[in-house]
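Record type: ASSEMBLY
Status: queued
Input:
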Amino acid sequence: MTKPSPFTQSLRGWMDVFMHRSMRGWTRFAKSTGLSMPQFSILMQLHHKGICGMSEISERFDITNAAASQLADKLVQSGYIERAEDPNDRRAKMLQLTLKGRELIEAGRTERYRWLDELQSKLTAEEKLKVAESLKVLTEAAKQLEEKA
Amino acid sequence: MTKPSPFTQSLRGWMDVFMHRSMRGWTRFAKSTGLSMPQFSILMQLHHKGICGMSEISERFDITNAAASQLADKLVQSGYIERAEDPNDRRAKMLQLTLKGRELIEAGRTERYRWLDELQSKLTAEEKLKVAESLKVLTEAAKQLEEKA
DNA sequence: GCATAAAGTTAAGCCCGCTTAACTAAAAAG
DNA sequence: CTTTTTAGTTAAGCGGGCTTAACTTTATGC
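Status: finished
Output:
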């Protein structure tokens, strides 16, 4: 096993700290909403993709259609999502967030951002500038990888 | 609502992409081990803290002692952790990872790092340098916040 | 057009996490 | 030395997620 480069090390160091911190925030928030993790994850997916069919959900989370259907049911009943018929394929359903669902996601986002704001307050002006550029580069690279996959 | 600064924006953009990507990896890996999320999270906590008492676990995850005890039981039975008596306080138990547990965590880490390596390959030499410095700064800031809390 | 495949739904049943409640054992407080 | 607090365990019971199996409805291939 060869020793990782300084670059790799700092990337990994950041990942360890960041993961730990954001996982905690994530689970805390999900719990505070009263939703289970699977339910909450589906809301996040819908937020990302916009509109999804049932099968898209089951593939994404590697569960059966039956499981997805039942989870969706609960989310509909609690008013976070809407289940509409697809006019082009009447077998299919189109799932999407309701206003209430979007508000929930937004609240979670705000909470996550609070930590970033605190983080920001620890940096000098020059550091902020450099960090901003670096993260833009990383974000861009990540998006490229995403498309490829 | 005032418009966020460019710095804030790039920080948030990165967070969105990074969170989405690493949550997926995280849940996939946990599932692949056959462990439930709560069980897996306890292993992670033990990896972080080294040795924990039962109450530390229940506080950290906001569950009752009873729940923690039962979860620990399963992890002991599957050989990932060890439950020893605390010589200083014979009511207390000391939970820690076994070799098998440490190996599991290590495997997860490796998997997460793979993505970082791919990310790295998209960057030029100068970018790497700048990114490395930036992340060191951020990691440092994050650790400061952690101590304070 | 008819057979086959695809998208979802529903119900039965399993395992799991979690809580409450009742308990044991050891430490701390008085 | 007794009372109270603290650490943890055990068992019963609830609710949730997930799977399989049986089913409905709509699209597709030949």
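Annotation: The first strand of chain B starts at residue 81 and ends at 85.
Annotation: The two ends of chain B are 28 Å apart (CA to CA).
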